[in-house]
Amino acid sequence: MKRSGLTVSLSPLFPQGGRGTFSSESPFKSDRKKLETTDIAKAVVYAVTQPDYINVNEITVRPV
């Protein structure tokens, strides 16, 4: 999206299996490590630091 010479890119981010308010109802096994806020922050940094010719359409972050 361009407006007044400023380019704005939007990328949806879908964190799953984190330590948020819904983690008790997580579909993931309880023995899996929960996502930390820094894990999500790293995904955001990845998306916003890509060159102009790279389009990050969406990011899904899940514990393994």
User: Share of helix among residues?
Assistant: 10-25%
Order of helices and strands: EEEHE
Number of helices: 1
- Please give the oligomerization state of what you see: single chain
Query: What proportion strand?
Result: 15-25%
- Number of discrete domains: 1
User: Over all CA atoms, what is the radius of gyration?
Assistant: 15 Å
Strand order of the largest sheet: 1-2
Could you walk me through the main structural features you see in this protein, from its secondary elements to its overall organization?
- The structure is a single chain.
- By secondary structure, this protein is α+β, with helices and mostly antiparallel strands.
- The protein has one domain (12-61).
- The chain has 1 helix and 4 strands, in the order E-E-E-H-E.
- It has one helix at residues 37-48; strands at residues 2-3, 6-7, 13-15, 59-61.
- The strands form 2 sheets. A two-stranded antiparallel ribbon has the order 1-2. Strands 3-4 form a two-stranded parallel ribbon.
- It is elongated.
- The termini are far apart.
- The model has no long low-confidence stretch (mean pLDDT 75).
Quick overview of this protein structure:
The protein is α+β, with helices and mostly antiparallel strands and about 60 residues long. The protein has one helix at about 35-50; strands at about 1-5, 5, 15, 60.
